[in-house]
Structures are given as structure tokens and as C-alpha cells.
Amino acid sequence: MSEESFSEEKQPTKNSKKIKIGITIAIIVVLGVAFIPKIWAKYNKKEIVCLNGQTEIYEKFKDAVVLVKHTYALEISIKGSEPFQIEVDDSTLEPKTISGTGFFVSEDGKIVTNHHVAEPWLYGDETKNSYSYLKEHIAAVLPDSIKAEDYKAFIEKNWNSYYEGEEGDYEEESEEVVQTETPKTVDSTAVVASDNSENTSNDSSAEEAVTPEKVVNYIKVDDITITPKTVEISVALHGSKEDWLKCKVYKIADGEEVDVAVLQLNSETLPGSVTNIVDLENAVTDDSHIKPGTNAILIGYPMGMTLANTRRGIKVQIYEGQINKESDGVSLQYNVTSTHGASGSPVFNECGQLIAVNYAGYDAAQGYNFGIVAKHAAALIQ
């Protein structure tokens, strides 16, 4: 065999080795991308520094907990018209403002709170109806012939006619209704016309004088859509004097059961006064480890501005209790004092780790309150 022939036979073997090496390197890279971050995270977790009681927890997180104010109003659309708001003497249609609590969890101004703080119209009494009473009111005062650009002005002008049982102030080009006069007694001495054609003409005129009123068709209830819409969401910081920072809704948990949402400052920047955020990486996400009898510490704004406002600005409050019931995977029960306004408050264990987001309780009695376990808040930020 010649030297040239031998070289040609060996060449495929060298190419095969290169291919195998390339495949091996590719596999290593893929596995590295998939597993190295997980391994790194496992062995490089931030060390949990256990805080010593509620005072230390309060001092660390008081600036991270904010008072949330959400104002919303109802918008009306008729037959697919551009939505509009009306200003009438009816408290149902006035803008509504609710208050809640939230807490910073990121350097770009993300704030964890409750879903019912981010979209309050989906909870409470308003979920039990579709604003049918308002639709019926509008349908009773708005004629079908009114132009779309005149809907708002016409409804506002005629809103109270619904309560008075009157028709709206409706004007349209039409003939006036002619009322027949009461017939007079004929004088026996009067000359009676013998022309039959005249008598027929008079009788005909009398009949034509009785004209029925024109029927007015009104808008149908099914043509009316009423939708709640945010006017403004803003937050105030601990120690501020009602300096409100505007926010937007960033993300909301899927489903009605998990009452958690994330807001974000419009500036997307953490305020300079907030030195410690609530670190979701250190939160207790395995809720099976949260046992009844362990401490639960809530920092928030129960009663909103009623309790928060002081001579030295807005002040957050802290309350302590114990876990009363094991987690069911969604919520925890505890006996920490809480009421309206504390929705969205962080609930910590005795070390200062987040264990839940406060969301509900019983108005009739204290000591029966609930929080969504922390893993659901952490899932929204990932």
C-alpha cells in the first residue's frame, strides 16, 4: 500500500475525533447552563441573620412598608361608544378611594400587596352584581335617538327624572299634540247649514284633531356597559407628610384564591429613604415549616390614614401574635390584630423572614386573621 493511500484512510478517523470532541463540549455547555445556576444558588444563599424580636424587625423594615391609596371610578359605554364618566347626585357613581398596605421587594420599586388592593372592584359587595341597577337607571332616562356625543350631557341633565317618575327633558322635531276642545251647546235659533259636504268636512276635522302622542324608544339595558377603572394608585412612605408616589399595576396572581399582586412605582426607582427591602429570597417559601404557636409579626397600616397620620407624618404600626393553624398551601391563620387598611401587610416570623401577606379577617371579632403564604408573592417576582 502506498503512503498516499494510507493517509487517505486515516483522514476520516481524525474528523470523527473532532466531531466527538465538539459534541462533548456542546453537552457540557448545555448541562452547565441548566445546572450551574441552581448549584450556585444552593451553595451561595444569603446568610439569614435572625433579628431579635419585633423592635429589630420594625426598625429594619418600617421604611419598606408603604400606605397604598387606590382611587377608581365607573366608566359608561353605550352601544360601544367611547367610555365616559358622569357627575350626578348619586354616591354610587362617585369615585371611590380604598386604602391598603404594601412593601418594597426590589430595587426598581416593585411593591407586593393584595389583589383586592390592586383591583378592589373584583372583591366585596360589588362582585354580587353587574351594576344592573345603574344600567336600568340609564336606560330609563336616555332615548335611543340621542347621539353618542350627547350621551354624557343628556344623562347628567335628566338623571333625577328617574326618581321623580317623569320623562326626560327630551326634545325632538315633531308635531305638537293637538288637544280637542270641549264641544259647545248649539243654539236652537242658529242657522244650520244644509250643505252635506260642509258637515262631512267638519266631522273629519274633529277626528283629525285627536292625535296620539309620539312613542319614545329608550336605550336597552343590554346596550350599556359599566366598567370600573383606576383613576390613581399611589403610596406614601413611613415618616412622610402625605407625599404620594404614583404607581402602576405590575402583575397579579392567577385565579381568585391567591389574593396577591405587585405594584411598581412609575419612577421604577426605589426611594432613597428605603434602606432595606423585604428580601423574598430569604422568605419562608416552604410553608409546611410554619407551625402553630410560632410568632407572627405584622407591620402595616390598619385603618389607613385614621391611625397612620400623626403630627410627625405618617407612621406605620407593628402587631404581634401567633400562628393558629397550619398552612393549607394558600393561606395561614393567625391571631395578630388586623383590620381594613392592613390588607397587603407583610407578616414575619421571629427572625424577620416573610411568611405571609395579610389579606383577610373577621370584622365581628379580632384574632381570626389570614395571610397568603409567602411563596405566592415570591412566584410573582421571579
Automatic annotation (TrEMBL):
It comes from Flavobacterium geliluteum. GO terms for biological process: protein processing. Pfam families: Trypsin_2 (PF13365). This is Serine protease. Residues 179-209 are annotated as: Disordered. The keyword Cell cycle does not apply. InterPro entries: Peptidase_S1_PA (IPR009003), Peptidase_S1_PA_chymotrypsin (IPR043504), TYSND1/DEG15 (IPR039245). The keyword ATP-binding does not apply. GO terms for molecular function: serine-type endopeptidase activity.
